[in-house]
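pipeline/complex-builder :: batch 7 item 3
reading input block
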Amino acid sequence: DIQMTQSPSSLSASVGDRVTITCRASQSITSYLNWYQQKPGKAPKLLIYAASTLQSGVPSRFSGSGSATDFTLTISNLQPEDFATYYCQQSSLTPYTFGQGTKLEIK
Amino acid sequence: EVQLVQSGGGVVQPGGCLRLSCAASGFTFEDYAMHWVRQAPGRGLEWVSLISGDGYTYYADSVKGRFTISRDNSKNSLYLQMCSLRAEDTAMYYCADAYRSSSSQYWGQGTLVTVSS
């Protein structure tokens, strides 16, 4: 199975900051990498698919990059509603594994 | 409006069975593969299973041989039959579509499965 390793596992930041979350795959997944945001008690929300394609309706302060094994999610100009947990997921080969999550907290 | 409405969760004893359902509306269900994803209390997301529009199935190793994913395109419905349940299967279970790159843009509301004696 492909292992997905996210870092950091938690992150403190302030409104207006720029933050970067990284996700590393244990083998090449080309661009089959998705990013989700999840708030407590809610289903995940798709932010980015295919490594860098912004899902419709998602603010442009979210961006994704990377290919093969190394990927990043960048959030510019953090807004209060962005404080949540973020997950990467590979969809190259089943089982479609998720990273362990990154909890973004207010500093 | 796309909706995925889940039902069928609850409390079940270890070793028992439970069937989850997910009723889809607002899109051409038979054209889309569908996922089940779960989340144990306080833990991260875990992909469980995938079924293609024409019925090909895929499973996580942790549920293979115990869970069965199926669909009834005539009823726009997705199912997850879970047997030989273990305490570690306790989780919120979500159904979700397989969108571009098999990502999921639409999710059900989740249904809680608790395996306990």
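note: Residues 18 and 78 of chain A are 6 Å apart (CA to CA).
queue -> next item
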